Amino acid sequence: MQATGSLARARPGEIMTLMTTLALIATFLLAFSITALMVPPIQRLGIRRGWVQKPGGRRAHTQPTTNIGGVAIYAGCMAAFVATIALESLDPALQRSSFETLRVGLVLLGGSLMFAVMWLDDIWELHWSFKFGTQVVAALIAVGPFLWDQARYLDANGLPTEARGILLTAFNFPFTNQVDLYAISPWLAIIATIFWIGWMSNTVNFVDGLDGLAAGVSLIAALMLALHALRLDPPQLTIALLPLAIAGACGGFLIFNFPPAKIFMGGGAEFLGYMLGVSAIIGGAKLATVLLVLGVPILDVAWLIVSRTLAGRSPMQGGRDHLHLRLRDLGFSGRQIVLFYYGLSASFGLVGISGASQIAKLAALSVLALIGAVIIGYAMWMGERRKQHT
């Protein structure tokens, strides 16, 4: 899958200097540190103001737990990403073009809107339609000026790949030709972009029903996106900065969110989904990586939407029909479940970014899918047997 708006790349044959490597590492560490340092005071603030998730429902915690951890994730991620602007003056390899600078602004604006509204939802529980509208508006902000300026501009190599905005323009299916959405209609590309960003926002939000699950899977997805960008020839250096900031924020938060969680991310889940969705589009050809890493949660969300709709329920209604909650009801511990998800996500992601042939990747993915299906099927079977003997 591809998208317009690929950020600056190193020139062919150019290797990363020590300065560039340190800048990439510093981006991750800055997001990690800011998030980790902000969590304790946010925990205390949430308890003091009553911004907590009370025991009961889908959560297994036994005492009121602060549910505004998304504030720390947002602060760490955005602060580190903004700091990368200063790197342009320190390292020529990290300089952004005017198109890139525009996209940085769109990411900051759209991500901030998503965070602000979902943070308010943590406090006052907004109506689902308002949150859905926010997702659409935030996605439109990412599309940016392309809404009225749908031309393609020449990139550094003289090819018409640049656009004034963040846009999903084409899909690559295995063993088939590319489907060029932009060639069919620029508006089709815009609709696909909105759908993708909204789907990602809801996927991460839906998976945030178990301690450490959303933060850990998002961390893995962000790292895979960064590695994918850096492994390309030439490497997409500035592309990697955004997922590294996301990964750092997730890592800093996961210290406090891994089972048993001391804090919940709340609306930070939608923010992470938005940022991951945008990250996959900006550099092009990375949607498949995210789809692989988040394959199990994405399929779970698709199944929930279909099953709840057929049952006459709202797809946005909460429930215990999520896969991770079913596994917990079968007796698996929170740590066992999240580690299972981590293992599948990391394995799928590594296969996706590997340099193996399409056939080898397909074979490896088939084996991983079979293993995952066997484990899940076995868990369900054991659960039924356990019910019959009680």
Secondary structure layout:
Elements: E1 2-4, H1 18-49, E2 52-53, E3 65-66, H2 70-87, H3 98-124, H4 128-143, E4 153-154, E5 160-162, E6 167-172, E7 178-180, H5 181-184, H6 186-207, H7 213-231, H8 237-257, H9 268-282, H10 287-293, H11 295-310, H12 323-329, H13 334-353, H14 358-388
Antiparallel strand pairs: 1-6, 2-3, 4-5, 6-7
Describe, in plain words, how this protein is organized in 3D.
By secondary structure, the protein is mostly helical. 65% of the residues lie in helices and 5% in strands. It has helices at 18-49, 70-87, 98-124, 128-143, 181-184, 186-207, 213-231, 237-257, 268-282, 287-293, 295-310, 323-329, 334-353, 358-388; strands spanning 2-4, 52-53, 65-66, 153-154, 160-162, 167-172, 178-180. It has a 3-stranded antiparallel beta sheet with strand order 1-6-7. A hairpin with a 5-residue loop joins strand 4 and strand 5. Mean pLDDT is 83; it is low at 1-14.
- Globular, elongated, flat, extended or rod-shaped: what is the shape? globular
Strand order of the largest sheet: 1-6-7
Please give the alpha-carbon distance between the first and last residues.
49 Å
Oligomer: single chain
Separate helix tally: 14
Indicate the radius of gyration in whole angstroms. 21 Å
Mean pLDDT: 83
Q: Report low-confidence residues grouped into runs of 5 or more.
A: 1-14
- How large is the share of residues in beta strands? 5-15%
Number of strands: 7
Major sheet details: 3 strands, antiparallel
H and E order: EHEEHHHEEEEHHHHHHHHHH
